[in-house]
Design goal:
The chain is α+β, with helices and mostly antiparallel strands and 146 residues long. The chain contains four helices and five strands. The model has no long low-confidence stretch (mean pLDDT 97).
Length: 146
Amino acid sequence: ARMVDVSDKKVTARYARASGHIRMKAETLAAIRRNSIVKGDVLSVAKVAGILAAKRTAELIPLCHSLPLSDVQVELTLDDELPGVRCEATARTSAQTGVEMEAISAVAISLVTVYDMVKAIDRGMRIEGVRLLRKEGGRSGVWEAP
């Protein structure tokens, strides 16, 4: 295993967007909506957890470069059709390597935090579909999920 040497790469503006969701019982989603979860405001805590995860990605994923993030946004929305919570995260930097892992980490940890906060009433929740939607910058330019 080795970290990729990016010292010869140009510093460019980098952007990544990722998404995922967590499925749960309709009653669990209703409890989140009512803000009646014992641990508190699920969406606010999950959002902060996602931002923190993006900032700490290099500590979580062994071969990731540590990046100076210029922006991280995490959006969580309640979805009655799942039923569950959808998460989308974006990350931005100007660096020699991309921020895909930071956006994906933000989504994954946001959803794991949702699970942690409501597991007392619904242990059967499923985190699904965590993936990169778009990345911009660097040699390869723009990539968008089909």
